[in-house]
Amino acid sequence: MIENNTITLTSGASFATGGSQSVGMLLGWSYANGFTARNNHLSSSGYGVGIMVFGSGTAAKPMILEGNVLTAISSVRTDTADGTGVYIANQFLHAADNKRESTVILRNHNTISGYVKGIDVVDCANSSFPLFVTLNNNSLAGT
Known about the structure:
By secondary structure, the chain is mostly beta strands. It has strands spanning about 1-5, 5-10, 25-30, 35-40, 40-45, 50-55, 65, 70-75, 85-90, 100-105, 110-115, 115-120, 130-135, 140.
């Protein structure tokens, strides 16, 4: 359980320019265990990513995001994941295949605002494992 945290960050450079985005929460590698991140408050700027999720959860034990508030100021997107509230993929950016399915649920009033992309779901061509994403009762607002 990741719960009731406040994370404020400023971004580095885009991966496209040889830098790295700041990421509020990097949630991956839990595979069949799954877990919940709820009631966290994240704010970012520039190329920042609120939450990045990959290789997490199964149908029986999913990765669950609920009640989180993600806010961006001056969000920018040049390359993959830049300026994204929640980035979900079945492979970690340009890394090798996770060799696991990913099941992610965003529910119960996640609020995402100010990002270039609120939620970005990427079924990577290099991955041979399925990605399942369910969204319900969330709020998204543009910049």
